[in-house]
Amino acid sequence: MYCPQCKVEMNEKIGDYQYRQCGLDNVMLINVPMYECPTCKLEAPRIPNISDVHRRIAEQLIGKESVLDAKEIRFLRKELGLKEVELADYLGVDKVTVSRWETGASKMDASYDRLFRLFFVHKKTGTAPAALSLFKKVIAKETSVRPSEIVIRGESLQRAFA
Ligand SMILES: [Zn+2]
Predict the structure, then answer these.
(1) Which one of 9, 30, 132, 141 has the fewest CB atoms closer than 10 angstroms to its CB?
(2) Where exactly does CATH 1.10.260 map onto the chain?
(3) Which fold has domain 49-142?
(4) What is the pTM of this model?
(5) pLDDT digits (tens, 9 = 90+) for 41-63
(6) How far is ligand 1, taken at its centre, from the CA of residue 23, in Å?
(7) What is the 1 CA–ligand 1 centroid distance (Å)?
(8) How would DSSP label each residue in 70-109?
C-alpha cells in the first residue's frame, strides 16, 4: 500500500489505532496490523474484517447503561443500513426528530432509546420479539386509518379461560 500523500510504500507494523472513521470518538483498536508511512507517519489500520469490528462496537453500545448519545445513534442507524427517514418510520417519529437526535440538538428519551435497541437487536439477530417487525406496517397505517376494532366474543371467553 502506498501513502496517499507521499506516494511512497508504507511499512507494516502492529499498533494501536483510534478508529475515528466509524464516527465515534472513543473507539480504539489495540494491537492491530497497520500501515505507516515512513515519510509523513500517516497511519492506516488494515483490518481484514471491518464488519466484525463494527459488530463488536454495536454490541457494546447496545449493552451500555446510559442513553445512547448522538454519535452512537448515528452509528447504529448506519449499521442497520437505514436512512434517517426509514429509522423515523420504524420508531414512529418524524425525520426531523431523528436528525435532532443525531446532531445532539435533542436527547433521545429513555423509552425511544430502549425501543431503538430492541429494534436493532431484532434486525440484526431476529431474536427480539417478533412483533417488532410489524411496527413499520402499524405506524404507516396509523396516520390515515382508525385502529381496527378488537372484537372479543363472549362465547369465546369461556373456552379461552376454561
Ligand atoms: Zn506519507
Answers:
(1) 30
(2) 49-142
(3) 434 Repressor (Amino-terminal Domain) (1.10.260)
(4) 0.74
(5) 999 888 777 888 888 888 888 88
(6) 23
(7) 11
(8) HHHHHHHHHHTT--HHHHHHHHTS-HHHHHHHHHTSSPPP
